[in-house]
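[job 0412] stage=fold_complex status=start
inputs:
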Amino acid sequence: MASTSNMFLYSLSILPPSAISQAVLGAFSGKKQQEIVVAQGSRLTLLRPDASQAKVQTVLSHDVFGIIRSLASFRLAGSSKDYIIVGSDSGRITILEYNPTLNKFNRVHLETFGKSGVRRVIPGQYLACDPKGRACLIASVEKNKLVYVLNRNAQAELTISSPLEAHKSHCLVFALVALDVGYENPIFACLEVDYGEADQDPTGKAYEEIEKMLVYYELDLGLNHVVRKWAEPVDRTANCLFQVPGGTDGPSGVLVCAEDSIYYRHSGRPSHRVPIPRRKGATEDPNRRRVIVSGVMHKMRGAFFFLLQTEEGDLFKVTLEHEEGQVERIRIKYFDTVPIATSLCILKSGFLFVAAETGNHHFYQFEKLGDDDEEVEFTSDMYDPDHMEMLAPAYFHPRPAENIALVESIDSLNPLIDAKIANLTDDDAPQIYTVCGSSARSTFRILKHGLETTEIVSSELPGVPSAVWTTKLTAEDDYDAYIVLSFTNGTLVLSIGETVEEVSDTGFLSSAPTLAVQQLGEDGLIQVHPKGIRHIRADRRVSEWPAPQHRSIVAATTNSRQVAVALSSGEIVYFEMDSDGQLAEFEEKKEMSGTVTCLSLGEVPEGRIRSSFLAVGCDDSTVRIFSLDPDSTLESKSVQALTSPPSSLCIMSMQDSTGSLDPAAATRSTLYLHIGLYSGVYLRTVLDTVTGELTDTRTRFLGPKPVKLFKVVAQGQTAVLALSSRPWLGYSNPLGGTQGGGQYMLTPLSYPALEFGWTFSSEQCPEGMVGVQGQNLRIFTIEKLTENLQQESIPLAYTPRKMLKHPDLPLFYTIEADADTLSAETRASLISKAVETNGTNGDTTPPHNELPPEEFGYPRAKGHWASCIHVIDPLAKFPLQKIELGENEAAFSIAAVSFSSQDDEVFLVVGTGKDVVLSPRSSSGGFIHIYRFLENGRRIEFIHKTAVEEPPLALLAFQGRLLAGIGNDLKIFDLGMKQLLRKAQGTSIAPNVIVGLQTQGSRIIVSDVQESVIYVVYKYADNRLIPFCDDMVARFTTCTTMVDYETVAGGDKFGNLWLVRCPAKASAEADEDPAGGHLLHERSYLQGTPNRLELQAHFFPQDIPTSITKTQLVPGGKEALVWTGLQGTIGVLVPFVSREDVDFFQTLEAALRNEEPPLAGREHLIYRSYYVPVKGVIDGDLCERFAVMGGKGGEGKRERVAGEVDRGVREVERKIADMRSRVAY
Amino acid sequence: MADKLRATQQLEQLQARYVGTGHADTTKFEWVSNIHRDTYSSYVGHPPLLEYFAVATGEPMAKLRVKFIEKMIQPAGKPPEKED
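[job 0412] stage=fold_complex status=done
writing structure:
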């Protein structure tokens, strides 16, 4: 193995991608409820919109380890359940079914049709299903189309036929949709172009005459073959198709959307055409034509309509008037504006789900359908249906939303463009600062590890309480009746009702502090106080058990039938409720060797009369388990030694995939003993229900304060609340996927530190928690267990390009630029001109007032750039200053440089390009702007700018001067009075364009846009920049970081992560000679530098890495490489320390590939080796599937995998969990 | 002889099934066009890559996708005059 690599990394994702490439709607659970399945990178996620709460819940997220390219849902006739078809890069068609009881996707069919990978002629790009669920067509961009017939067999199981081919060579497909033909033969419509002739014609005439065709492919169900039934030329600019309802619901056929027009087409029917209205406004170009980018058709009560979206996000409602299968006219009118969507879904419950292309996904509620408003309507009567004719343009005025109202915005980091990790708030763990989004919807986001909490009550109390409990009055009560607060000298009881008020006639002893409160038996209450135990019966009769003379109670634990208390003398007294509801003391007291610090009984398991174990923590750093069985009461069962005295104990059973099966609830659960230590360490060990032995201990440091543990309920599952220097919640990940949840998670709450906590349940808040913080009583709930990173955002103006943290201060500087967008200056001048010519007349509507760009975007115009620099205060969450760049300049690079010639004063340096054209790359020059920091960096002031030949795409502070990558040259500048002064230059350092720079000492790592990284050394004596080592693989570098002096980690545009290292000899030689004469005259090797980099590790995570940093994510954790991806992924690469761990995980990974093959049929190893064979990286995401695999239908899988690595299931689980908790969340 | 025939047949089969499989007389134009078409279809087929272009240019992904497929029609300009 050593020959493959001597470095091994463990790849884990912290945050899955949030981009949605497609969303499909269906009743996947087989119930009435509609659900949405979305493709997010390599993940399939099931979302359940909740109409009553107007929220979208994530139910399941499954990594298929493949590129999901297309999705479709279908339903067999007469069934009520929708299936999902996945077109992926596996060269196979996958049909999935969602199993709601196990909460997992089941693969029903997997049919191979071609090579794997995303290829031109391998189907998978387009997918369409007959609306009656009888057939599906899967097509590639060029040539190939396969039709599968779907049916059911005698057992009512879904069957799939062998594929029928409908190939046509030299044929490019632009869009594909299934026609609604009722129960006639299924028909699929394609937008196609045949390039065969144009490829042969040197005159170019054939190319000019190419027509785009609308083609119908009919599947003859009787003859079982596919024919190209009908082909008709359509508008050359046509780009998408929409199904028009057929059969009894409508006229059938398709809507063909092209530039500026929407057509209705069907074979043998007259066609119709309406224009796509253009925005009217002072800043709008009246000649710019719009296209439809997405849309949705919705059927309701015999009628149907379309919502089609243009490239600016404007939704248009399109309706068809039809009679006897003939379309009479099309109507189109402006509906509302929403973010540009990849998919739109209209739910029957009256909601619209917008899977946004960039930024947050939106969930809207329909308020009306735009039926009777004053919006201008355009009908096809006025327009010629012939696509060769030009159309008179139509215009509309965009306006704020009238028909839909936003009810939920689902956080999405997509596209995540840059990130920095820093601890600016002095918390335990650092925060992740990112810039994401595009155009006016872009944001600066702060990500913090923690669960979101919603505060319900926070009220000040007369004193500082030491503890709080809530209790019901009887066992049957649904909600709590009392809040009991314990102070140093007394107890206060509050009743919960409409209002919370103090009550005094409860029977509770108010003159002493309380140690425990419990609802006992049917209708009794227990109060444990230092001098005794008070048992309050329903009729307010009180019986009291006094503590023995000269001793007091120091610790107590209770459950609904048992009480155990520890006395100051170290004795334990145990009580059990007898048949007539009395507390009976067990005669013998158990004497402990030291002082008891904490006790725990655990709940009485259902159907039993007692919990059979008592856990006792003593100040000699041990925890002992005693039996409570009648024949062996208080007999010691086991002992666990600890590193510090325990401060809190909690026995509770939790959902767990390895535990014993509870047939009633169909979940598995395990009895755990949770231990909190005075040192701030939290342990979780499995408590054997029969022998009482403690096994499988997992440890986690929570904070410097002693840990207190409480059993709480969050989102329907029992969880443990652990309080240290901040509150934490231990729960099992609800997105697990198998019965009984998946991995155990321990996440801090984003809530102030609490001293005590308890559950709280009332009618308004059934699953709350109550806590004491200083003098305050706080009640809060936890809304979501699915997201353990919390986001806060600050709006930005344009698409962010890069961000920079001030070297010393907690401030960020972002540069933003939008291509083909009018700059603020131009917009303002256009508006003022319009106002001048027309006069305002008190009119506040457009063109005189700009609409908010966050919703409506900026007006676009070819060749214009809008760009700005923002100063951002991440602590106050506020942008401090915005500097708009004029003269068609766009900012591309940023650096903070301390110039030694200016007494080490730090300046902000921004590299811009003028009149930049992205493809093919050109510009009329570049500039380097210098800004001075004012007011402690809170403002910046422009000093001067220096013209350079090309836009500088990389800037870096280097030895008290500025290093700039300009085109393929490296230049070193010093700061002068009027402009920058060039001090050194290395020409043609990179083969193409320098896009990134890193440095350590005199070494500079230059990243090229296409050709990986080049190691360059700066020779001060000679003032020369000499490249000495480069790579042999062309990597389209996006980001890099130096892991050590020799090693660079980076990512490329195709979604790879890699580590390359300079050979030790070359590295040493480069630094040997201060003059560099030797290096300069060394012979070039194969037209490159004399040395080549060695590949250390390579991995394909699919998402395009946009930033990579070597840092620590958790307090006391190891350093790891944290990377962020364009689609919103955040991942880590953790170096392995020991060889044994590497061997273990390699074997585990291999076993998992066999036992848990990816859902969409892609080979895991081949997927991770998409461009370059995976090297030195173990896929932690696959390893973590271990926690959720198995379950019903997969019995014994986990045992087999564990057998492969010669460990127990629990030990494997622990090793996997440790890998994560050591470095990440 | 039979072996040679079989090899030819196999090659023809490959060429029919997999667009772009070369042969002894592949011209530079054919080769370049083929590479370009493969490239564009890769841009369209990999969602993150398409998004990368979309973010840089500020155009919606749906529009870019059509633009790239449109470019596949004649990616390397007009074919050269045949010399015969």
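[job 0412] summary: The domain at 235-406 of chain A is CATH 2.130.10.10 (Methylamine Dehydrogenase; Chain H).
[job 0412] exit 0
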